[in-house]
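Sample intake sheet
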Amino acid sequence: MKNIFDAKDVQYFTDRMEKLNTNTQPLWGKMNATQMLAHLNVSYEMIFEPGKHPAPKGMMKVLLKWLVKPKVTNEKPYKKSSPTAPSFIITDTRDFEKEKARLSTFMQQVQGLGAKHFEGKASLSFGVLNHQQWNNMLAKHLEHHFGQFGV
C-alpha cells in the first residue's frame, strides 16, 4: 500500500490525478470525474474543515466504529460499487479544476504534517486512529477511485 505521508507516494497519486479530465469515464459506478474528485475531498474536509460535516451520533456512531471502521482502515481493497455514506454522495455540479486543486492541496497537507501528527488523531466517523489506519483509509480511497476511472 502507498504511504500518504511519503512525498514520492503523494506524487504518484498526483500524477495519476493529472491523467483525469472532465471527459474521463468511469469503469463502474455513477459518478463523473468531477464528482469523484469532490467525493475524495470529503475525507479531507472531515480532517481539515471541522464543522462542515456533522459527526455521527447514537447508534450510527456505534455502527461506524465497530462495523465500518475495520473495513475502511485495513489494507484490503474496496469492492467495486461499494456502498457510500450520505456525506460522500456528490450529486451537484462542481468545478473540475477547483476539486483537483483542492485534492492536491489536501494530499500535500497530510504529507507535510506527517505520520506523527496523525498518530492517535480522532476521525470524525471512526474515533481515534493510529497513523497506519489513517494511511490505509486515505490511500485505499484514492487507489479505489483512481482505479475506477482507469488512471
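Comment: The radius of gyration is 15 Å. The mean pLDDT is 96.
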